[in-house]
Amino acid sequence: MLDITRRQAKLVELMARNEKYMPAKYYANRLNISQRTIFNDLKGLEEVFNRLEIEIHRKPNQGIKLHGEPAAVQRMIYQLEGTLETPNYSSLERQIVIFRRLFMEGQTVTYQSLSLDLYISTTSIIKDINRIRKFMDDEVRLVSDIKGTRIHGEEITIQKTVKRFAYYLIEQKVHNFTLASYAEILEPLFTKNILDTVYKTMDELVSVLDLNISEQYLKSFFISLLILTERAYRGYHLTTMPDVKFDGAVLTNYPLAVQISHRISSSLSFNFNELEHQHISNQLFAHRIEAKLSNKYIKNILSEDISQIIDQVSKAINIDLTTDDKLYNALIYHMFPMIYRLKSNINIYNPLLGEIKSNYGVLFRILWYVLEDFEKKYEIKLTDDDVAFITIHFRVAIERKEQMSKVLIVCQTGLVTSDLIMNRIKSLLPASVDLRLVAKSQLNNEDLSEVDFIISSVQLEDITQPIVYVSPLVSDEELIGIYSTYLKHSSTQRKREESKLNSETISNYFNDRYIFLQENVTTKEECLDTLIDVLEKDGVVKKDFKTSVFEREKLGNTMVKNWVAVPHALSSMANETRIAIMTTKKPIKWNDDYCVSLIILLAVAEKDVVNIRKLLGKLYEIIYTLEKIYGSKLIMSFEQPEELITLFQDKSTIS
Question: Which residue numbers delimit the PRD domain (predicted)?
Answer without folding.
Answer: 297-404
